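Minutes, project huddle
Topic: does the predicted pose make sense with adenosine-5'-diphosphate bound?
PN asked that the exact inputs be recorded in the minutes so nobody has to dig through chat later. Recorded below.
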Amino acid sequence: MDARFFAAWMTETAHAVAAARDELTRLDAAIGDADHGTNLDRGFTAVTESPPAAATPREVLTAAGTTLIRKVGGASGPLYGTALRRMGAALPDTPEVSLADLAEALTAGVDGVRRLGGAAEGDKTMVDALAPAARALTEAVRAGASPEAALDAAMSAAEAGAKATVPLRARKGRASYLGERSVGHMDPGAASTSLLLAALRAACGPGSPGAGSGPAGPA
Ligand code: ADP
Ligand code: MG
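Predicted holo structure (tokens), as shared on screen:
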């Protein structure tokens, strides 16, 4: 996996976030302040509009994280920005990194979010989607899965984690001010995390023959 792969991840994320902007904002309207879609759309648009001359995966993710921190005012900007910067820092500074490197980096990214935001799993935040995704990726790597299968597993885990936030009561972020009234709604940050993991899977290109219909990713 090279810088092109990670740049493709950011591009796929920007497209997915733009397409889901209104839905993310609707989720945030229910338990927050109705800006999550616009926050992330602004951030990831900036990430892809000014791509750095990045030669390594580490540089791509570090630059993307810095841009998110600069451009997104809400809680999610510093949190996602930190996740990407921590991921970048955890990768070897080489033109190519392995799937195992990516799994370790994602785990480091989740730790960064936990440390910055103080949220644990079950607090109804993006951590509820990020942490299971990092675990699924790590397990898949251990089991010797292909990149496609491993990223499928990470994507599914994030999706399941996001869905599982619906019955939870928020204990961090703006939604926590609602107390019991936050129950019954999906956490917007967990929903956007599942988009990021789907975009990571998409950056990998189609999987088994006939499975994928999207544009081919980098070979
Ligand atoms: P804001 O809450 O400042 O309006 P956003 O609406 O862009 O920012 O993002 C809200 C999302 O950020 C929440 O749905 C949640 O997933 C995430 N979030 C908020 N606070 C925390 C935290 N302390 N730790 C982890 N994630 C958090
Ligand atoms: Mg908000």
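Observations noted during the meeting:
- Residues 209-219 have pLDDT under 50 and may be disordered.
- The longest helix spans residues 99-117.
No decisions taken; revisit at the next huddle.
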